Amino acid sequence: MKYRFGELIITGLSCIKTRLLYPGQRLIRFPFYLRGKSGVKFGTSLTTGYGCRIDCADNRDSLEIGNNNSWGDRVHIVALEKVIIGNDCLFASNIFISDCDHGKYQSDCEDIFIHPKDRPLYCKPVIIGHDCWIGENVCVLKGSKIGDFCIIGANSVVNSEIPNYSIAVGQPAKVIKKYNLAAKRWENVSLDGGNVATCETTT
Which residue in 94, 150, 104, 151 sits closest to 124, CA to CA? Predict the structure, then answer.
């Protein structure tokens, strides 16, 4: 990928700021917004796009980021209790990950006339495994767990558990393919969980 001269200057300045402010990371492109830095446990070699934002609880390890992650532009992570991101994950742009909601919206929801900003926060950990690819505009909501080697399709909303070696899409995200380790191929998944077809063998 070739950079224009102006982009080279901007990237060079970001490299210098990364070395000074976030040693051990590969490239943090600025602007980069981080609230609650003491709550973040960084791995190594993180690369980000422009305008990424992290909101963390101070004085606790509320966000753990693995090694060799690469994020696109405007990735927004809210971690007030616990968000864990594994190693070697690739995130597209405009992704939102949050371990909390403003209020409960099930059978025990609060008074509807309480303003959303005044409702108590309810948190539940979010876990994203190793080697995951998260597509454009994906939302990962509180209590979600994405296994290792998963792919989440663009515009999906994850609000439950996605098992290892799965491709999930939709709102809410549902598994449509799983990788068969023994056969070394992707297999389509029917709505009732049964395998209905296979994809070509990978090489």
Answer: 104
DSSP reduced 3-state for 69: coil
28 CB contacts (<8 Å, ≥6 apart)?
14, 17, 18, 21, 22, 46, 47, 48, 52
Half-sphere exposure of 102 (CA within 13 A, CB side): 7
Q: What's the CA gap between 141 and 113, in Å, rounded?
A: 24
- Residue 22 contacts by C-beta under 8 Å, 6 or more apart in sequence? 28, 42, 46
**This prediction's pTM:** 0.90
**pLDDT in 10s for each residue of the chain, 203 residues:** 667 888 889 999 999 999 999 999 999 999 999 999 999 999 999 999 999 999 998 867 899 999 999 999 999 999 999 999 999 999 999 999 999 998 877 656 567 788 888 888 899 999 999 999 999 999 999 999 999 999 999 999 999 999 999 999 999 999 999 999 999 999 999 866 555 445 454 43
